[in-house]
Amino acid sequence: DQQVKQNSPSLSVQEGRISILNCDYTNSMFDYFLWYKKYPAEGPTFLISISSIKDKNEDGRFTVFLNKSAKHLSLHIVPSQPGDSAVYFCAASPYNQGGKLIFGQGTELSVKP
Amino acid sequence: ETGVTQSPTHLIKTRGQQVTLRCSSQSGHNTVSWYQQALGQGPQFIFQYYREEENGRGNFPPRFSGLQFPNYSSELNVNALELDDSALYLCASSSGGTLRGGPDTQYFGPGTRLTVL
Description:
The complex is a heterodimer. Chain A is built from no helices and eleven strands.
């Protein structure tokens, strides 16, 4: 039972344009959502998070949007840079379950110069 | 500020053997979580330790066990290794925010690549 889904295994974007990575979830008990970036041979690096009481959080070039009614999460990167090329994971934390994170399968972003 | 470190980087074992993986948490963090990441998948939660006590466990058999020490470092032990245990094992540390009713951002180490032959 895949509670967090990233339906696009890969995404290719031109440098300077917007990258939009999507994530869907099924469990309405999730109350905290995070995005991580992962380079090969490294651990995931925390990017940005959002609480379920908000619908948007912004940090520099990264913005996360949360649509609770649609159970949908998206990460916008503007402008995209070649160094953003990596695998992006969304993760969700269920309320009152000891900090467990449930991850999607990841989307590989390629930003071309 | 020291980040999360893990050892060893790579490990090769044979089926049936036992393995211990180690993790040092980021300074100021008292919570450690362990994840297994198979090739092409997202990390899967194994368990979490908060102040030396297990605080939540994922869908892993009892041959996966752990410890947390007074300095908040942690070990993951896997007994009776199976071929399917081959994966990247990730450790993440955090400040235990969920235990205070708030969000808990987890910061990951580089991982240990375990290969079981």
